[in-house]
Amino acid sequence: MKLRFTLFCILSLLIDGCYSPERNCVDFKTGAFEFEALVGTEVETTTFVRNDSIEIDYFRGKSDTSSIRWINDCEYIVQKINPKSMAEEKAIHMKILTTDGNTYTFEYNVVGEDRKERGKAVKVSSDPIKPNKTTN
């Protein structure tokens, strides 16, 4: 009985240890991206372009610029450069959890708060200057 349990534990560790989600975060440090989110009852699309230190978001015909400070290849802090409210002054911690082709799944939260949200972004262009859906 003890031997079976030990073998089961070793086998479980081997199987679990072999699985590791893809995380090619460096591929997503720069470029143009799209992110869809449910806003009220409608799905809205945000497009953003990012280089190593700046991110520009385009939403409902308006743009907003944020600074980026990379913690490591998969995590960074985003903070609006010209916040228009107290809520916009708060920094956001972003963490890339997994990557798959031209998409990545991420987790984010306001720095200092425990509540985390998840999302998925699609890289639509490698050009960090402007989005272009036809180029990758």
Q: How would you concisely characterize the structure shown here?
A:
The protein is of the alpha+beta class and 136 residues long.
Describe the structure.
With 136 residues, the chain is α+β, with helices and mostly antiparallel strands. The chain has one domain: Lipocalin, CATH 2.40.128.490. The chain has 2 helices and 8 strands, in the order H-E-E-E-E-E-H-E-E-E. An 8-stranded antiparallel beta barrel has the order 1-2-3-4-5-6-7-8. A hairpin with a 2-residue loop joins strand 3 and strand 4 (62-72). It is globular. The N and C termini lie far apart (56 Å).
Gyration radius (Cα, Å) is 19 Å
The top-level CATH class is Mainly Beta
Number of domains: 1
In round numbers, the mean pLDDT is 84
Q: Poorly predicted ranges (pLDDT <50, ≥5 residues)?
A: 132-136
Helix segment tally: 2
In the CATH hierarchy, the third-tier topology is known as Lipocalin
CATH architecture: Beta Barrel
- What's the CATH H-level superfamily name? Uncharacterised protein PF14869 family, DUF4488
Main sheet strand line-up: 1-2-3-4-5-6-7-8
Helical percent range? Answer: 10-25%
Keywords:
single chain, 136 residues, alpha+beta, Lipocalin, 8-stranded antiparallel barrel, 49% strand, disordered C terminus
